[in-house]
Each structure stands twice: as C-alpha cells, then as structure tokens.
Write a structure and sequence with these properties.
The protein is an alpha+beta fold and 170 residues long. Helix content is 41%, strand content 15%. The protein has 2 domains: 30 residues; 126 residues.
Length: 170
C-alpha cells in the first residue's frame, strides 16, 4: 500500500508544541527571577554604605563615620560640623531618644527614590533615623522626606508587600 502525502500530516507537532511551551516557560521564569533579584539587590551599594557607617559608629570610630557621611577636611559639610555630628552619633549623644546602641543599631528598610535611596536605620530602642544616600555622589545625609516623594500607589504597595522579603537581607 502506498502512503499519501497526507498520512504524515501532524507527525512532529506534539514534540514541537512541547518545545515551544518549555521555551516560553523558561523565558517567563527567567524574567520573573531576574526581576525579583534586581528588586532585592538594586540598592545593595547604598545599603552597604550605611552598614559601614553604622559599623563605624558601633565601634566608636567616629572620625571614619564622619568621613563616610561625606565630610572631610578638604570638603567639610556646611551646617553639620563634627561637634554636631558627635552630639547626634557619639556615645555622649544629647539627642532626646538617647545615644546609639551598638547592640541594636541596624538597617531596617531601604527604598529607591528617583536619584537617591531612603534608608531606615534603627539607632536604639526608641530612635529611628531616616537617612538619604544620593546615588550620584554616595554621600549619607539625613533624609529630607519621611517617605519617597512622587511615588505612585502601586509602587508603595509593592514596597510594603514584597519589600518585606528584603528585610532579612538588610
């Protein structure tokens, strides 16, 4: 018996469909994983700057902490002299909520905002400081904002939900 050309119609179609579905799934999973990892680690550099600053304050090396703040002898910070820095971050701090507690000081939140990163640093049991790291110059400063300005509600919701997954990494 002779085979006609229609007898082979659709023979490799199941295998081709499996390859297409697996390829699409691989692209989707890779995209979701890459997006999640980017979201988790995109502020890593600024977080490490604040972690180093907190480590210097914890160890009592306040000169280094002042340099990490972005103030040097060559480029002093106007309006934030070293004596004022000591009253804010030194062991004899005169801030009403008390001096930094070396056992308690840690980074609790990080949120990217336009040209900077808003970081929350728990200084002691009563004191929480919002710090701002400018992405272009890597200088730490007190945050001018309590929350990121000009963020849409969806970005705020995303930060408050998925952002909690980042806390153990901070």
């Amino acid at each position: 018996m002779r085979r006609s050309y229609l007898d082979q119609y659709g023979e490799g179609e199941e295998q081709r469909n499996r390859i297409i579905i697996r390829s699409i799934l691989a692209v989707v999973v890779t995209t979701i994983t890459a997006s999640f990892l980017w979201y988790i680690f995109h502020n890593h550099h600024q977080e490490s700057l604040v972690r180093d600053f907190a480590g210097s304050v914890r160890s009592g090396d306040l000169k280094t902490a002042y340099r990490q703040w972005g103030c040097t002898d060559q480029k002093p910070c106007s309006g934030y002299e070293y004596n004022k820095f000591l009253t804010d971050w030194g062991p004899a701090s005169t801030v009403s909520t008390g001096p930094p507690d070396s056992g308690f000081m840690n980074l609790t939140d990080s949120e990217s905002c336009n040209n900077g990163v808003l970081l929350t640093l728990a200084v002691n049991g009563k004191r929480v400081e919002k710090l701002w790291v400018d992405k272009s110059v890597d200088e730490i400063n007190f945050s001018p904002y309590p929350i990121c300005p000009h963020k849409n509600p969806w970005a705020i919701m995303l930060h408050r939900t998925i952002g909690k997954l980042r806390k153990p990494l901070l």
